[in-house]
Design brief:
Order of helices and strands: EHHEEHEHEHHEEHEEEHEEHEHHH
Strand content: 15-25%
Organism: Arthrobotrys flagrans
Mean pLDDT: 95
Shape: globular
Bound molecules: NADP nicotinamide-adenine-dinucleotide phosphate
CATH superfamily of the largest domain: NAD(P)-binding Rossmann-like Domain
CATH class of the largest domain: Alpha Beta
Strand order of the largest sheet: 3-2-1-4-5-6-11
Structural class: alpha/beta
InterPro entries: NAD(P)-bd_dom_sf, NmrA-like, NmrA/Isoflavone_reductase-like
Number of domains: 2
GO molecular function, one term: oxidoreductase activity
Protein name: NmrA-like domain-containing protein
Number of helices: 12
CATH topology of the largest domain: Rossmann fold
Largest sheet: 7 strands, parallel
Keywords: NADP, Oxidoreductase, Signal
Length: 314
């Protein structure tokens, strides 16, 4: 068994956490390659750990085979709009000797069919996972891993998701607003994912579960009302049925944010599924991140308010 997965190919946005491994794992340097689309406008830093940037047609198996050859691990944080592209990527990776493929999950518990069956993006996650199961374990022995983390806490709030709208300081509360869901700090998700590179004997053929906090919409409101010096937020009561219908209308009108409505409509639906920390084993500590307490939650939400006020988001 290799000591660690040294040669890493990244698709998507967790480069900062990969580069921080020069501090967290100084004796185990990574050789990082990046895969980026021909049409991409992404800018990448110059850094001694970044050994190659493969820019090309991510639907071309020959381009993928060149990029994937000699990689130990591929980490796919690919766009939710391109999830199915991972099927070709998995097939190619399994043929050129990649050891591990971290598939783009990074969300709700896609194994919970009650929760995720009705949402197209989660059906795509499951289609990719089934494909991964099919191509893994072949003669070259590739394994897959997926990271389930719940909502990206800071990003979803600042992007006006989960019902929270910082511009107008209003929140739409769906159903009771007391349904608990898992939320994770984005830094925690990135760090836990990167840690997989340093534990090559573990997590193969698994979805792993991490969560920074388990909270409801009303828990978030309570904390916001304490830390937001501008005073209490306005609450608008809605149902998840209303949200689902709005999502469907938006999608029919070509607004893909409707897909996000569909996600929160199931996530906050009373009685549908439950917070995964209640039935799955969380592996936070094994992947080097904390399961955080309520005291920390106030600090994180205060940070989100500061970020909003500093104008870091629209
Ligand atoms: N749990 C949550 O709350 C939450 C929230 C958001 C996202 N996520 C998950 O996190 C993962 C990454 O999402 P993200 O929002 O970071 O993705 P994103 O910003 O939309 O895209 C990430 C990268 O994917 C690459 N890409 C490849 N094919 C693409 C295509 N056809 N269209 C657009 N981009 C393409 C692009 O890299 P290049 O430009 O370099 O080619 C892009 O920068 C996904 O699994 C998503 O479901 C979870």
């Amino acid at each position: 068994m290799t000591e660690y997965f040294k040669n890493v190919l990244l698709i998507g946005h967790i480069l900062t956490a990969l580069l921080q491994t020069t501090i967290t794992h100084p004796s185990q340097p990574l050789a990082i390659s990046l895969l980026t689309r021909l049409t991409s406008t992404a800018k990448f830093p110059t850094h001694p750990s970044i050994v190659q940037i493969h820019k090309g047609d991510t639907k071309d198996p020959n381009f993928l085979a060149t990029a994937f050859t000699r990689q130990d691990i591929i980490i796919s944080a690919i766009s939710p709009y391109a999830l199915l592209d991972q099927k070709l990527m998995l097939t190619v990776a399994s043929k050129v000797g990649v050891n591990r493929f971290v598939v783009g999950e990074f969300g709700l518990d896609t194994r919970d069919e009650e929760l995720t069956n009705s949402v197209s993006v989660f059906r795509q996650n499951r289609e990719v996972l089934e494909h991964a199961v099919g191509v893994c374990g072949g003669p070259l022995g590739m394994e897959y891993t997926g990271v389930i983390c719940g909502a990206f806490l800071e990003m979803t709030l600042l992007d006006g998701e989960m019902g929270f709208e910082f511009g107008s300081r209003t929140v739409e509360v769906y159903d009771s607003g007391r349904k608990k869901i898992e939320v994770s700090r984005m830094g925690d998700v990135a760090r836990a994912t990167v840690e997989i590179c340093f534990q090559p004997g573990r997590w193969g053929g698994e979805l792993v579960y991490i969560s920074s906090f388990t909270v409801s919409q009303r828990d978030i409101i309570d904390v916001l009302n304490k830390v937001d010096k501008k005073g209490p937020w306005e609450v608008v009561e809605r149902t998840t049925g209303w949200l689902k219908e709005r999502g469907e209308r938006r999608v029919q009108g070509g607004d893909m944010m409707g897909l996000v409505d569909e996600i929160w409509a199931v996530a906050f639906s009373d009685g549908v599924g439950e917070a995964f920390s209640r039935k799955r084993r969380l592996v936070n500590e094994e992947l080097g991140i904390e399961r955080r307490g309520q005291g920390d939650f106030g600090g994180v939400i205060r940070g989100v308010v500061w970020e909003w006020e500093a104008g870091r988001r629209k």
